Amino acid sequence: MGGRLLDPAQAEPDDVVLSWEGRAAVAVRLPHLADSLDRILADLERRHGTPLAQLDRKTKQSVVRTLESRGAFALRHGVETVAAALGVSRFTIYNYLNRAE
Q1: What's the mean pLDDT when you consider all of the chain?
Q2: Domain that holds residue 3
Q3: Quick check: 3 and 28 in contact, CB under 8 A?
Q4: How far apart are CA 52 and CA 40, in angstroms?
Q5: Looking at the structure, do residues 12 and 58 belong to the same domain, yes or no?
């Protein structure tokens, strides 16, 4: 997910502070959701061993289903970001999503 571990004294309001036996042990700073989508896309590209835009149609549909299960399309501009990564149109992404249902 790309979070960073920090000293609890450095925690900001959006950080998650983890406690151990009643004492703050570590703070976790999570990346912005848009950064997480970029990381997920990069991970999928590594797993497939080729740029996502070069995948065949069936594999792109599988990638879209994976991204949907991870909440990628709940993000603002999620469809546009995924469409650009896959080298397809937004309309195509919506078609893939509709087929999955």
Answers
A1: 89
A2: 1-30
A3: yes
A4: 12
A5: no
CA atoms of 58 and 64, how far apart (whole Å): 10
Give the other-Cβ count within 10 Å of 13's Cβ: 4
One domain, residues 9 and 21: yes
For the cut 60, the answer to whether the pLDDT of residue 1 exceeds it is: no
Looking at the structure, do residues 16 and 64 belong to the same domain, yes or no? Answer: no
pLDDT digit string, tens, across residues 6-52: 999 998 887 889 999 999 999 998 766 656 788 889 999 999 999 99
And the tokens for 65? 């289903």
For residue 43, what are its two tokens?
Answer: 């991970």
- Tokens encoding 16: 């998650």
The pLDDT assigned to 34 comes to 59
If asked whether residues 73 and 93 sit together in one domain, one would say yes
Give start and end residues of each alpha helix (H) in 1-101: 33-48, 57-69, 78-86, 90-100
Residue 53, pLDDT score: 97
